[in-house]
Amino acid sequence: MSAGLFDAESLHMGPPDPARAESAGVTPPTEGGDPAVRPRREVPEPAPIATHGPATVLAMCNQKGGVGKTTSTINLGAALAEYGRRVLLVDFDPQGALSVGLGVQPHELDVTIYNLIMERRVTLDDVVRPTAVEGLDLLPSNIDLSAAEVQLVTEVGREQTLGRTLAPALEDYDYVLVDCQPSLGLLTVNALACAHGVLIPLECEYFSLRGVALLMDTIEKVQDRLNPDLKILGILATMFDPRTLHTREVRQRVIEAFGDLVFDAVINRTVRFPETTVAGEPITTWAPHSGGAESYRLLAREVLSR
Ligand code: ADP
Ligand code: MG
Known about the structure:
Blueprint: H1 8-11, H2 18-24, E1 56-60, H3 69-82, E2 87-92, H4 97-101, H5 113-118, H6 124-127, E3 129-130, E4 136-139, H7 145-151, H8 161-166, E5 175-180, H9 186-194, E6 197-203, H10 210-225, E7 231-240, H11 245-258, E8 262-268, H12 272-279, H13 283-286, H14 291-305
Parallel strand pairs: 1-5, 1-6, 2-4, 2-5, 6-7, 7-8
Antiparallel strand pairs: 3-4
Helix pairs in contact: 3-14
Bound molecules: adenosine-5'-diphosphate and magnesium ion.
Magnesium ion (MG) binds near residues 93 and 97.
């Protein structure tokens, strides 16, 4: 990747222009060609598969919190599983939101991903658990994982700890999705170091582009020093509100900056997602015919075709 492509300058998006913001309010969706929605590319229906593995590892990454990383991990995973893929979701955030979103109470767990990466006697089979979705498994986490960040600092090969841990699982799955914590610290670097691709959920809000330059910088460093094969799989526009001008402008800006990397799938802002967290299941099973479920299915088809 060329160094200056994603520099801070080209990604800078200033504060909303007051005159513009006034008229932004709520605007009806435009007829026909919406500038924020490119004509869709052809995405083939995924072919069924008879055998599984080796897995593609994807890091779900953005150091900003609340942008939809965890929601996208759960629902992309569930949609891939619907297409017959075997998927392992890795909760790599001490907050344990991915585990909660799948109905697991993190504080009640005896063993988590923390034990798996820090204790040699703990095996994947001790920690992995099925979910209510067929083909979708979970490596849960809880607050214990926050200690790993400190403890790993003195380990030999500290950046490759997660990769070593996941290696035995790769044969059994088609996708491993790692839900990263909202920071660019050692845990996130571990995810990037073992991933084939990075999927960046990006909130359609002013200022959301600013942090991306820093994330791109970290990705380039990991490519240089740890994982030359790491690719940016794509950028997913989240929290999209089709009624407001500014959210559409932000998506337009993201398309200008990242072109084909931006997925056609767009995740609208809807209260249905917080509701699924309470329900402890993916939107694809909780509200299978909702727009949100359909959007994540489109994302899954795009991921399968990239
Ligand atoms: P992150 O993992 O990046 O911190 P989350 O996926 O946990 O982000 O989302 C943050 C909050 O926003 C959660 O309460 C979640 O339920 C909610 N949320 C996620 N996606 C959407 C969406 N498309 N529309 C509305 N709320 C959402
Ligand atoms: Mg999260």
